[in-house]
């Protein structure tokens, strides 16, 4: 069967269809070119052969490549990929990258918010942590007041002396060294005491810390500030030496503490006046609002009322920042 040319000219030798053939073809469905027909022979003017006498389909010519650009159906050199070459392919710019899913953005924002304003100190401590030091001479009543503070405000109470005595009780090499120094009324090296406090703070997982009996020297104060943080409040319990001595001797009758004897008490007073009192001056020089002096001579209930008011104001100020 012949084919109709794109010029609509009829070849001289074209065979005319009979009326019977026309009647047979009329009403038949139009036959679309299958993919395999793309390779049929074509005439000189570019028109492919077809089984349909009314098919005037023209062959599309390939689009020439852009000057200096990659050839049709080819990827840029060095892409390391290959692509099947087609006659009508057009090189186009890659589609824009899809934006990250909303859930991924939310996750990133949540992660960033957790680390915002994170302190340079202990990573496990909350950014809203509050640290209060309770300082004062031996026998001024630090332990008594700390018990009430913990009960009302929920602080984690860390006593430097208790942590050291616990280490002594373990009878470890470190504990034996601490025991010898404490019996002589001397200060334990700052790296030991600070290490025990830091370990206890991490283990608690809390954000309110009440630390008594530390720092007892300026180097301890500076080491705590450098490694952990600056305290939010320093409670200094003032008490005359005579009153403190009477309390310690009475406590020694039942406490069983090795440092609650008269000879050791005198040495402890000397160490406090020489090493610990300058710590109060150190914090006053940083910020006069950090230190709050409270007389511990009155009965414990009266002393606590003063401390209670100070801590409420401190926590309110922390909550507003």
SSE layout and pairing:
Layout: H1 19-25, H2 102-115, E1 130-136, H3 142-153, E2 156-159, H4 160-169, H5 173-183, H6 190-204, E3 208-212, H7 218-227, E4 233-238, H8 241-255, H9 262-286, E5 291-295, H10 300-319
Parallel strand pairs: 1-3, 1-4, 2-3, 4-5
Q: What fold name stands as the CATH topology of the domain at 129-159 and 207-319?
A: Rossmann fold
CATH superfamily of the domain at 129-159 and 207-319: P-loop containing nucleotide triphosphate hydrolases
- Total beta-strand segments: 5
Q: What is the chain-wise order of helices and strands?
A: HHEHEHHHEHEHHEH
Low-confidence stretches: 1-18, 31-38, 43-50, 79-89, 111-126
What share of the residues lie within helices? 40-55%
Oligomer: single chain
If strands are numbered along the chain, what order do they take across the biggest sheet? Answer: 2-3-1-4-5
Gyration radius, rounded: 45 Å
CATH class of the domain at 129-159 and 207-319: Alpha Beta
Distance between the termini: 93 Å
Shape: globular
Number of helices: 10
Protein name: adenylate kinase
GO biological process, one term: pyrimidine nucleotide biosynthetic process
EC number: 2.7.4.3
Catalytic activity: UMP + ATP = UDP + ADP
Task: Describe this structure as you would to a colleague.
The structure is a single chain. By secondary structure, the protein is of the alpha/beta class. The protein has a domain at 129-159 and 207-319: Rossmann fold (3-Layer(aba) Sandwich). Helix content is 43%, strand content 8%. It has 10 helices and 5 strands. Strands 2-3-1-4-5 form a 5-stranded parallel sheet, sandwiched between helices. It starts with 18 loop residues before the first helix and ends with a helix. Residues 1-18, 31-38, 43-50, 79-89 and 111-126 have low confidence and may be disordered.
């Amino acid at each position: 069967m012949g084919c109709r040319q794109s010029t609509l000219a009829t070849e001289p030798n074209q065979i005319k269809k009979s009326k019977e053939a026309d009647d047979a073809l009329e009403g038949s469905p139009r036959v679309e070119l299958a993919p395999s027909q793309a390779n049929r022979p074509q005439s000189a003017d570019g028109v492919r052969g077809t089984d349909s006498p009314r098919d005037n389909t023209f062959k599309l010519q390939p689009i020439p490549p852009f000057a200096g650009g990659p050839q049709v159906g080819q990827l840029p050199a060095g892409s390391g990929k290959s692509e099947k070459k087609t006659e009508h392919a057009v090189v186009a710019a890659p589609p824009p990258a899809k934006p990250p899913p909303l859930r991924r953005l939310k996750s990133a924002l949540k992660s960033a918010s957790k680390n915002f304003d994170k302190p340079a100190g202990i990573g496990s401590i909350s950014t809203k942590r509050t640290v209060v030091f309770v300082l004062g001479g031996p026998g001024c009543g630090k332990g008594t007041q700390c018990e009430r503070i913990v009960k009302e405000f929920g602080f984690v109470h860390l006593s430097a002396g208790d942590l050291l005595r616990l280490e002594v009780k373990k009878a470890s090499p470190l504990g034996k060294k601490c025991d010898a120094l404490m019996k002589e009324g001397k200060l334990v090296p700052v790296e030991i005491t600070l290490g025990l406090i830091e370990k206890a703070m991490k283990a608690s997982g809390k954000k309110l810390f009440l630390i008594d009996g530390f720092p007892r020297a300026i180097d301890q104060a500076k080491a705590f500030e450098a490694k952990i943080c600056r305290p939010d409040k320093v409670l200094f319990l003032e008490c005359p030496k005579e009153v403190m001595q009477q309390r310690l001797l009475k406590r020694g009758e039942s406490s069983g503490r090795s440092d609650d004897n008269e000879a050791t008490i005198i040495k402890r007073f000397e160490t406090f006046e020489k090493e610990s009192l300058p710590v109060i001056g150190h914090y006053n020089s940083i910020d006069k609002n950090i230190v709050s002096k409270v007389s511990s001579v009155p009965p414990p209930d009266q002393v606590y009322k003063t401390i209670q008011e100070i801590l409420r104001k401190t926590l309110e100020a922390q909550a507003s920042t």
